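Narrative progress, year one. The postdoctoral researcher (J.K.) led the effort to move from monomer predictions toward full complexes, under supervision of the PI. The following entry was the first complex the group processed end to end, covering 605 residues in total.
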Amino acid sequence: MSAVSMETPAPLAIESPARRAWRRLKQRKSALLALFVIVALILIAIFAPLIAPYDPTKQSWSAVRKAPSLAHWFGTDEVGRDILSRIIFGTRASLSAGVISVGIAITIGVPLGLLAGYLGGKVDAILGRITDAMLAVPFLILAIALAAFLGPSLGNAMIAIGVTATPLFIRLTRGQTLSVVKEDYIEAARAVGNPGWRIALRHILPNVMPALLVQATLTIATAIIAEASLSFLGLGQQPPAPSWGSMLNAAQRFLTNAPWMAVWPGLAIFVTVLSFNLFGDGLRDALDPRTK
Amino acid sequence: MFSLIAKRILQLIPTLFVVSVLIFSLQQLLPGDPALVMAGEEKDPEVIEQIRKQYRLDQPIPVQYVYWLKGVLTGNLGESMRLKASVSDLVLAKLPVTLQLASMAMIIALLIGVTAGVVSAVKRGSKLDYIVNVIGLIGISTPNFWLGIMLIFLFAVNLGWLPASGYVSPFEDFWGSMKTTILPAFVLGNAIAGVLMRHTRSAMLQALDSDYVRTARAKGLLETKVVIKHAMRNALTPVITLGALEFGTLLSGAVLTEQIFTIPGFGKLIVDSVFNRDYAVVQGVVLVTATTYVLLNLLADIGYVLVNPRLRG
């Protein structure tokens, strides 16, 4: 990237870590494309009412299971609703489920991970066992069990997925904390009399951030698939509100005469998840100090 | 070596204890009177009374837990409200089906994942390497259940080669069984093939960079021989142990895959029980899954120690 360094003649040594990561990220075409798709999806979710050609819940008995056409680009479903509009509105459920459940996992997981790594001892041992126990239950099975006991709703699905993803963040934060807590600058911060919470927030947390960012991006992908799975099973978004997972569930019954009903929601999940995975991979490479 | 393994086994006890507490606590999440909720549609006061007695809901929660754990340790996972059968019997009846599916999926995943990983490592940086990586990422990002539905559409609805759903036991009709399980096994296998490919690729890259491979090449051995006999042998050990860890993903995937292909296994059991608010079965299935997973982890660790001479004491 000689072009960039010519624009910014400042020596590399004072380039901020965030700026360096961004410069590296820009070199990765696939990650940039993924970022572009993610931004587009966010805009679609926000402006769904303006973009969608039809009301996503409006049924029309004269347009039941119509193949894709000029009037209905993606076709219509079993009660004559416009599939394109439902896909557009479904972006809201998927993205918010991905972001909110990961938000829940971070809010609980990061402080606990910092505590475990910083304090060590009994706290670490207890949190370690809880993390092990939660990770022993396969992701989706734990999420399904939690959602089943909490009751079916999109909100509960987000809580279930968020709680299920929490041990990932406890473990990650703990590991990263352990690796920086022995560094000299932490020792120095402690020597000048900083309180523990300040060291954790000001000195340890920034070092955990890069790994956390990568994990969060990749976990959003997992959470989106989990939300779609729960909605597919009827444990997430409740009808008639649109969600890609529940659309696939309905589509399964009409595979023979309305296969398009199954194509679009699956494709939407696939593109969204792939984008988060690609972006996460790119971010990991960009933030890794070992790669160029 | 034995002390290492013994230490690992001792570590399991607190983990399994916490697992049991977590799964028991699930029922505290039920809104309102758990006896009423667990009774479901049935509003017969006698049934509700029976649930109250069975779960000892009139006692304090820790006492309830102790009774529940006592049952679990003696193999009594409770009763299914809906099927009027013991949860352990239900689980035991469904487990072989899912195990068959999971093993077939694992074979498929290893065949695809290891081949792809070795090829992309050997051809590192080439177009082929790039394509394999992209396909791997696509595989990881494809939702299981969508792939299942699309394959049903292609092979069952359109081509009519395979049945869309159902299950035949291999002991009754082997080929019939293969026909009903090959699509779901492929769907399941696909979910972890990409992960195994990535593991294989990085392990192979490391092996190909090592001194013994350089020595083998310097001896003038054929490159295929170097790759297969020297690099692959060393690279595959961690891949196989990591494969055991992916078993959890297979069990997760089985839930939706079995649902789509109407295969009467473990995954379908948990979904059906969720729909019917048969909470004892949900708890039982989760408990058995977690225990299986923890034990598999242990086996993977032991296997790793056994094949790695440096860890043998």
